Amino acid sequence: MKTVLVTGAAGGIGSRLRGLLKGVYPDIRWSDLRAPGDLAPGETFIAADLANRAEVERAVAGVEGIVHLGGFSVEGPWEAILNANIVGCYNLFEAARRASVKRVVFASSNHAVGFYPRKRRIGVDAPVRPDSRYGVSKAFGEALGALYAYKHGLRVTCLRLGHVVDAPVDKRRLAIWLKPEDLVQLIRIGLEHPDIRYEILFGTSDNERAWWDNAPAFRLGYRPQGKAEDFIAQALAGERKHPVNTVADWYQGGPFCSDEYDGDRELAPS
Ligand code: 15L
Prior knowledge:
With 270 residues, this protein is of the alpha/beta class. It is built from ten helices and nine strands. The chain has helices spanning 12-20, 53-60, 78-98, 133-152, 171-176, 180-192, 215-219, 232-239, 246-250, 255-258; strands at 3-7, 27-32, 44-47, 65-68, 103-109, 155-161, 163-164, 177-178, 198-203.
């Protein structure tokens, strides 16, 4: 794997990866709507609006692998999710097929399955239970990935990312935290492991409180280094800043579940 396109270069995860992926692949092309302000002289950047098919095709031309982080990364108005995450994701996979790209790593999200209660441990085979329009768009991306893998031979890995930051910031993130270096491991599995056809993997570090069974990732050699409990004091201090919310506290997706919630409150007992 020599030439890799990474979309979403200016976002939180993209900015962190620009340092961590340096030297891992000889030719990395970074893309986003606009160039990150701190682009270094040796870094290659190509501007592309994911909703614009021609721009996406230009960004994808000539690459062997894609890490697709781009799009709307939280809940948002339907039009924004539709353009960036539904149309954008389709444009990306379709451009990849047309350009004979070998592999795509798609940044899915825990919010594709956010409406499972925290007390339930789930594997990647649990049916999707999106907690937001954003979560629906991630489930759509996973389904699109399966189509392009099984019908068109693309090798696709969907990473259901938890929270990618340097340390867990509250109680929920003690379960779903993903150390950026561990994300690099998962990306490398997706781009390089010989056995990948189509995989969904959870993007989580070695967290004691994890509510996901990540056996498929371990089988592919994933050995996470981050341990959320090492940051327990600061995470619990962060938790004290959150107002109590029975719906957010009951479900894995947290506030993505409680926002706009007008369902049955008895389903989320305190
Ligand atoms: C996500 O999918 C978001 O992109 C990120 O900003 C966090 O909100 C994360 O989920 C989370 O669940 O904490």
